[in-house]
């Protein structure tokens, strides 16, 4: 006796397989599209880094016009309104990012500057000493909008000068000075020797992650199809 295979699909398994394949293909295409968007944004960031720096004055700027661009600002630091962003780890050492407003021009507006990283101490009640130049200076760096993404482990976001995270809205509520709608990540170029470490990583846009997720969804779609075909092929007896 010889057997011959034939395809005998069932209604509900067919509908379930079709739905599964449709959903996984849609999710794969969505992740692929997000990956393409992030890749284009990464290319734009590289292009913006090569463009001339934008001058930041007391005139309020639109964050959309300067975000991720190189900027420069002339002014003096105001240590009175400094905040320390907690739990910033560098090479296994816990420390702080030092955020301080820079008074622009006539002082009618400020811009926040992330001056860099400073190590903390084992005694959490002792805050690090931050050397601040008193004279006017030029601050150069990249403009960013802080607080777009973060995870807070506590609802208590600030304890005096120590903050868990920084958003411009919270800073405006806590400090009575007008600020630009972005923050400058200060570069080492022309920066004073203040002991702060300025090592800024390029924005992690997660391009490879999106492509990896897309591959997983497409692979799952293929597995659903293969499983459906295998389970619906039956051997027919012949005499």
Textual characterization of the structure:
31% of the residues lie in helices and 31% in strands. The protein has 239 residues and is α+β, with helices and mostly antiparallel strands. It has two domains: 2-44 and 207-238; 69-186, no CATH class. The strands form two sheets. It has a five-stranded mixed beta barrel with strand order 3-5-6-10-7.
Task: Give a quick rundown of the structure.
The chain has helices at residues 11-49, 63-66, 168-174, 207-231, and strands spanning 2-7, 54-56, 70-77, 83-90, 93-104, 109-119, 137-144, 158-159, 162-163, 179-186, 233-238. By secondary structure, the chain is α+β, with helices and mostly antiparallel strands. A hairpin with a 2-residue loop joins strand 4 (83-90) and strand 5.
List the helices and strands and how they pair.
Elements: E1 2-7, H1 11-49, E2 54-56, H2 63-66, E3 70-77, E4 83-90, E5 93-104, E6 109-119, E7 137-144, E8 158-159, E9 162-163, H3 168-174, E10 179-186, H4 207-231, E11 233-238
Parallel strand pairs: 2-3, 4-9, 6-10
Antiparallel strand pairs: 1-11, 3-5, 3-7, 4-5, 5-6, 7-10, 8-9
Helix pairs in contact: 1-4
Regions with little confidence, pLDDT below 50 for 5+ residues: 149-157
Question: Count the helices. How many?
Answer: 4
How far do the termini sit from each other?
5 Å
Largest sheet: 5 strands, mixed, barrel
């Amino acid at each position: 006796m010889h057997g011959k295979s034939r395809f005998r699909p069932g209604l509900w398994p067919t509908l379930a397989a079709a739905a599964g394949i449709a959903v996984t293909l849609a999710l794969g295409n969505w992740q692929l599209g997000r990956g393409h968007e992030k890749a284009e944004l990464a290319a734009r960031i590289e292009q913006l880094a090569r463009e001339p720096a934008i001058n930041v004055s007391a005139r309020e700027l639109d964050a959309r016009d300067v975000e991720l661009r190189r900027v420069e600002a002339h002014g003096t630091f105001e240590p009175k309104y400094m905040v320390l962003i907690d739990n910033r780890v560098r090479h296994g050492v816990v420390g702080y990012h030092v955020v301080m407003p820079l008074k622009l021009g006539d002082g009618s507006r400020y811009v926040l500057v992330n001056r860099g990283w400073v190590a903390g101490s084992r005694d959490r009640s002792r805050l690090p000493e931050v050397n601040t130049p008193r004279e006017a200076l030029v601050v150069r760096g990249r403009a960013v909008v802080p607080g777009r993404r973060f995870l807070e482990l506590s609802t208590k976001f600030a304890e005096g000068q120590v903050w868990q995270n920084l958003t411009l809205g919270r800073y405006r509520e806590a400090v009575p000075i007008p600020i630009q709608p972005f923050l400058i990540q200060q570069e080492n170029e022309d920066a004073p020797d203040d002991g702060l470490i300025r090592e800024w990583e390029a924005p992690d846009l997660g391009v490879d992650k999106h492509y990896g997720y897309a591959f997983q969804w497409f692979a799952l779609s293929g597995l659903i199809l293969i499983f459906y075909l295998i389970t619906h092929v039956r051997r027919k007896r012949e005499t």
